[in-house]
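User: Assemble these into one structure.

Assistant: Restating your components, then the assembled model:
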Amino acid sequence: MQLDSKIPDGPLTEKWDRHRFELKLVNPANKRKFKIIVVGTGLAGGSASASLAELGYNVKTFCIQDSPRRAHSIAAQGGINAAKNYQNDGDSIWRLFYDTVKGGDFRSREANVYRLAQVSNNIIDQCVAQGVPFAREYGGQLANRSFGGAQVSRTFYARGQTGQQLLLGAYGSLSRQIAAGNVRLFTRREMLDLVVIDGKARGIIVRNLVSGELEKYAADAVVLASGGYGNAFYLSTMAMGSNVSAAFASYKKGAFFANPCFTQIHPTCIPVHSTYQSKLTLMSESLRNDGRVWVPKNPGDKRPPNQIPEAERDYYLEEKYPGFGNLVPRDVASRSAKVQCDMGKWVGDTKLAVYLDFKDAIKRDGRDVIAMKYGNLFQMYEKITAENPYETPMMIYPAVHYTMGGLWVDYNLMSTIPGLFVLGEANFSDHGANRLGASALMQGLADGYFITPYTIGGYLAQASLEKIDENHKEFDASFLKVEARIKKLLSIEGKRTADDFHRELGHILWEYCGMERKDEGLLKAKELIADLREKFWENVLVGGSGQEFNQSLERAGRVADFLDIGELMVIDALARKESCGCHFNEAFQTEENEALRDDENFCHVSAWEYKGESCDPAFHKEPLEFENVKLTQRSYK
Amino acid sequence: MTKAGDKSCINLKLKVWRQKGSDVKGRFETYEARNVSTDMSFLEMLDVVNEEMILSGKDPIAFDHDCREGICGTCGAMVNGRAHGPEKGTTLCQLHMRHFSNGDTVVIEPWRSRAFKVVKDLVVVRSAFDKIIQAGGYISVNVGGAPDGNAIPVPQEVAEKAMDAAACIGCGACVAACPNASAMLFTGAKISQFALLPQGLPEAKKRALAMVGKMDELGFGNCANETECEKECPKEISIENIARMNREFLKAGFL
């Protein structure tokens, strides 16, 4: 199958305008006749639901949480980028576009990223109008701070709770549409299958998590905004409920999965401390504005940090990357931390940590200024570690944080299944091989507020859709399939819990498909995962029944899908015989230990097609063409 | 990893509210939690207890949780009679076992309120909060016509005050802690955020009347100045927001 990205013709700067003009429109009076299902209520799903309803579409919105306000976008701390150039420091749409393409190590689509930079400014305007309490300067103007991979200050923020405030803005707009009767909301529902009729996405099967009943919903288009798959690693900064099941069910129904091996490992997280640990906590990248990263110069130096004199400290990021210093992109900062620890220059009991030190910033700006910027983060750190970062440096280590990979979508954000649109972290579209900080919020809201509302209209206006409802035989087929899988999970009655399998999968992925990859390790991981999956389906213990509120059953279903996506990640990593961004294969590196791309052979998106349970997926390639940006070795020196 | 006998490892007796469903009677059951590392979070301690229960064929304790970093507002339970447990300004997921001592008995119950029905064990329905927001907890602005973000200057101290109110995570601890099961801190925080910001002014009156009306209709009680809500709020939202809500409500009466 030929992948058609449907990128419009014309100069980069005019593509989106031209495309918006060329998209067919749905007459306002006809919009209410179209039913749209939105799965997920994070920044992408919440904003899409609200915007589509404002336009007059008939929207049904689903989330797994008890309230749409709890989607994991809420946990984003640091900020959201926009090319406003309010600081007069030389920012522009073009610079945000360029930084994002370069930050992604030249593995994203030019046209998508340019559009993202274009609408970034509208997002800030929209959110301000909604009453999002962004940080302000004394004159009342919007404040900015800096994030990794950029030399301008373009990140808008609301203390360390930017994701929360943006999400509550979208949730407010969504609530308004619910009150107006334009959106019907279904909480505590988990999408377990996509219903495809005549090749088009026409509905979903969900499990009501309270009653356990399976429910069918038909529509004219389905919008998937179900987030990323980082929890495949077991330990990550994702919420405990974040999962890949809705996306993976769509993959099994024919939606291609793109670049699954591109997983972001965030450099500043609180280190792992024990085996019972259930999740990792991020310390916002914004801390790298003022915090300095260092390790002892001498391997094995076990003195407490305040007893190590300046001369015996290695500020390795400032040393190696003077141009960007502590603000290098995430993939570079993460790998550098690993390199230092591998050299024995670790700190802390687990030997897997580096320092993030605010001593100099506190000396320069005073404790109050630092507290105003990062107070809630320092407090969070202290709660978890019982150490006070005002007095002793934070200990940090990289952790799984975001997945750049996701379901393949074209310029319209439509997957390879017509009528299935995929938004936010669930798609693969804008970040290439590494996402820059403060760009996820931007992308989620761009997709939901400013892109899908147009492109979905374009689809509905020209698709000739047959009238169908939930009585269609495809709904029954999907229903029975989902039901059979639940019964199977419950019937195994083995000896190991789903969490236990999940932890083992996490170890395999972290060890062999994490910050550094080797072909032999990946081959081993593929075998280990296949073996683990077999054991899972023979020996998992769920308990309870399907007809009740059963969190253990929910988890088992999700772990089953994590095993499958884990394997796909490994297959994808093996196929990409180069290093780029987060995908660092030891065999491909520059003399200075940086990722070495192979633009001749791997300047493409890898898209995988499901071929059945016992078969490897089929590989498809979408070549990436760069007409406006010159491919270079990324340098942050 | 810590071992039994370490001072960083404790044994606890848990008295947990167990209730099969919303229409069934519940009761307390007692469980032993052994070798609990004091570095564990409260929810990680429950994870370990649950894992053992699943393996021995028992029904694990149902509890709501998601982000486990104190921001999503999903988790919450009464621990020894305190919403989210004994630590100030802390959600249950951020409460660590170092705040308990070896041999302690820990009583764990769901939020109790007429407006929050129990789903199972510690899980409750909080959709009443969503309904209060749906009544007017937003600014009516469609996507499209927003002016430039800097077109309306907002004084820094106003933006900070609005942010203090907006920090609410909607967990329900205020209702659970209040002897009257009042939702005034939750509602007041949202009304305050928009009453403070210039963007919220056009709808201020309508919003105050609609949200307060909905709150009453849903069966939440009234404020009697007990201030328990402020004490137990994991985000330390000030009751000053209740005062502001009352002013807004009163003002709205004089149209």
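Residues 1-5 of chain B have pLDDT under 50 and may be disordered.
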